């Protein structure tokens, strides 16, 4: 065994309480180097009476490492533990004090999980595990009230630009809620709704007023109430990293300079505040002078923004916040933010916009979830032919091992958004590839999200082209694609195994872009077969039982001589399942 590859620390994603009675342990070994790993566990005050040696499961792998995992239910909520690893005739033990070849004397030198404290548990909202999100940019979704249109509003369906308007509003959303229910949506994520001069509203001017081009606060409350009546949760976008240049406190700084009582609300390097040679004299989002960055360490700023977060939770019974540019705001602020929001609504779902490894924000004291752009990037690369099944399984294994299980169950997975090209465009306008991506989305860990219009075939390049108007004419919609989305949403909603079951690749090999993987819980076992090539393929995998059926048609599917063989069209898929109980 390569001892240098062994890794475990008694914290973070490696040893954590999953619930009030369960501790998850993980350990890393070199890829294909170790045959068996056992967790040697017990209570340090009663070792002999509680000792268990539990074999761990190889839960995932990446290019260099295997990751082993086990769930332990300690009798007295505390745990001492070590690891025994075997390969051939070699046996080693990994302890808190290091690696040794002799069996340890318990519980000395063992790792410890001192106690499962209820108050320390990282609890995520249960409803988010069942959610099917739909992202809406209100300005581009539907124009329900032309009377509140901005000046120079263009004809619906025109070419999107960075600064043009088409008149979408909250009344338009209200008018189409039944369409979302018919699709199967049970959660909405709105991009910003508050007063702002732009069409995207990420340069907020008034954080407690709905932009008049969208409606007003009363209408927003009506929309949320209507959503709740139809079983739809609502999450709003919070822009707390920066504001718009027309925000009153920043205007006061422009007017009064250093003497402004709001001067410390922002990160200002020199006065007067201005943009010199393209670079602002104050910190901003990117280098956009119209988006000055808040000093969230300032107690007054903190009080103001936390007040905004609490206000909307209480005022409209909001179900959560999506946090823009969350990685550029200090951790102290987000810790207080979580306390304020969860006090107002313990079931609020908090999603941070972080585009990379986000573990620092996902340890139970800040966010419940993040926008999982790394997931989208790997899915796009694989289904566009950029890697084989072996590499794809490595990349997905690495993503799975980034976070604790409760985070994986609600991580916010999308295939595109207002900040990326649209899904159909990302797959070269090949609807077959799009369907493979969507099948993977709805049969993988996490909380799936659809960007408005993807379900009826909207395409578009990067911003602003991805922000097209929703197409409401059925004759111009791809209704076959719509039915496919509705079918996949229904399948996921009906089967908990597709939401909480174990995920594992069954077939993912070098130089072959076809994959087979499974989702399994106590009730159901699913296997998903994908031909990610332009040729017909027959995929096979050992399967002994004969009680499999097609999850979408209900037709029985039987293996031959212990091997299941599935014929697939180019870029085709099939989902099989069997009942375990």
The helix-and-strand class reads: alpha+beta
CATH class of the domain at 3-120: Mainly Beta
Count up the helices.
16
Rg from C-alpha positions? Answer: 26 Å
Summarize model confidence as the mean pLDDT.
97
| N-end to C-end Cα span | 40 Å
CATH superfamily of the domain at 3-120: Immunoglobulins
- Taking pLDDT < 50 over at least 5 consecutive residues as the criterion, the unreliable ranges are none
Stated plainly, the CATH topology of the domain at 3-120 is called: Immunoglobulin-like
| Secondary structure: number of strands | 30
What does the overall shape look like?
globular
Proportion of residues in helical segments: 10-25%
- Multimer state: single chain
Enumerate the strands of the largest sheet in spatial order, edge to edge or round the barrel.
20-19-18-15-12-11-22-21
Main beta sheet: strand number and arrangement? 8 strands, parallel
Reported CATH architecture of the domain at 3-120: Sandwich
- What is the strand content? 15-25%
């Amino acid at each position: 065994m390569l001892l240098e590859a062994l890794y475990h620390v008694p914290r973070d994603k490696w040893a954590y309480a999953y619930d009030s009675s369960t501790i998850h342990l993980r350990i890393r070994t070199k890829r294909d180097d170790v045959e068996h790993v056992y967790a040697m566990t017990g209570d340090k005050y009663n070792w002999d009476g509680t000792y268990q040696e539990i074999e761990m499961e190889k839960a995932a792998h990446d290019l260099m490492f295997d990751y082993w995992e086990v769930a332990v239910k300690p009798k007295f909520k505390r745990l001492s533990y070590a690891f025994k690893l075997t390969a051939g005739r070699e046996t080693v033990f990994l302890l808190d004090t290091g690696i040794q070849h002799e069996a340890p004397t318990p519980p000395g030198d063992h790792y410890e999980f001192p106690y499962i404290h209820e108050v320390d548990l990282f609890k995520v909202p249960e409803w988010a595990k069942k959610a099917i999100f739909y992202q809406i940019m209100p300005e581009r979704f539907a124009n329900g009230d032309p009377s509140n249109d901005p000046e120079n509003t263009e004809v619906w369906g025109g070419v999107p630009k960075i600064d043009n308007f088409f008149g979408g509003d909250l009344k338009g959303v209200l008018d189409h809620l039944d369409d979302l229910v018919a699709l199967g949506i049970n959660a909405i994520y709105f991009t910003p709704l508050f007063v702002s001069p732009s069409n995207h509203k990420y340069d907020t001017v008034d954080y407690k007023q709905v932009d008049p081009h969208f409606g007003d606060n009363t209408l927003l409350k009506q929309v949320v109430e209507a959503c709740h009546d139809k079983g739809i949760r609502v999450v709003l976008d919070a822009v707390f990293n920066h504001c718009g240049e027309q925000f009153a406190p920043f205007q006061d700084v422009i007017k009064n300079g250093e003497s402004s009582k709001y001067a410390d609300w922002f990160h200002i390097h020199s006065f007067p505040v201005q943009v010199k040679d393209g670079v602002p004299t104050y910190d901003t989002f990117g280098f956009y002078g119209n988006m000055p960055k808040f000093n969230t360490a300032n107690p007054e700023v903190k009080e103001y923004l936390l007040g905004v977060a609490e206000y909307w939770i209480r005022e409209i019974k909001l179900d959560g916040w999506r946090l823009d540019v969350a990685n550029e705001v200090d951790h102290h602020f987000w810790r207080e933010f979580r306390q304020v929001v969860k006090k107002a609504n313990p079931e609020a779902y908090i999603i941070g916009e972080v585009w990379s490894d986000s573990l620092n924000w996902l340890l139970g004291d800040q966010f419940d979830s993040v926008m999982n752009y790394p997931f989208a990037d790997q899915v796009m690369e694989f289904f566009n032919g950029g890697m084989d099944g072996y590499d794809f399984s490595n990349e997905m294994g690495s993503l799975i091992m980034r976070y604790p299980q409760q985070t994986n169950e609600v991580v916010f997975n999308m295939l595109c958004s207002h900040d990326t090209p649209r899904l159909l465009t990302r797959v070269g306008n090949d609807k077959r590839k799009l369907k493979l991506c969507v099948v993977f989305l709805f049969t993988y860990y996490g909380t799936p999200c659809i960007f408005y219009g993807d379900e009826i075939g909207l395409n578009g390049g990067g911003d602003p082209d991805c922000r097209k108007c929703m197409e409401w004419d059925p004759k111009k919609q791809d209704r076959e694609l719509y039915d496919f989305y509705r079918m996949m949403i229904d399948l996921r909603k009906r089967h908990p195994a597709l939401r909480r079951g174990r995920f594992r690749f069954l077939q993912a090999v070098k130089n072959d872009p076809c994959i087979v993987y499974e989702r399994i819980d106590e009730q159901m076992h699913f296997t998903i077969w994908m031909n990610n090539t332009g040729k017909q393929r027959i995929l096979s995998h050992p399967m002994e039982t004969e009680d499999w059926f097609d999850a979408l048609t209900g037709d029985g599917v039987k293996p031959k001589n212990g091997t299941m063989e599935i014929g697939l069209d180019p870029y085709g898929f099939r989902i099989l399942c069997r009942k375990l109980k």
